[in-house]
What does this fold into?
Amino acid sequence: MPKLKTHKGTAKRVKITRTGKVVRERAFGNHILAKKSKARKRNMKTAAVIRGKIKKNVKTALGA
It folds into this structure.
């Protein structure tokens, strides 16, 4: 069976930690920030962990 190519779009958006977690950035943090609360903007800065079936799909796309 041939090697799988890394899906570059996925590779640019997610990172696999040393413990095997798949981490992504949160959405909606680029513009129209005046109407968003401080707490909401602060939470958008933190990374989010991808879980479940989607995690398996992402790892497959990355070839990991």
Notes: Helices lie at 8-13, 38-45, 52-62. The mean pLDDT is 95.
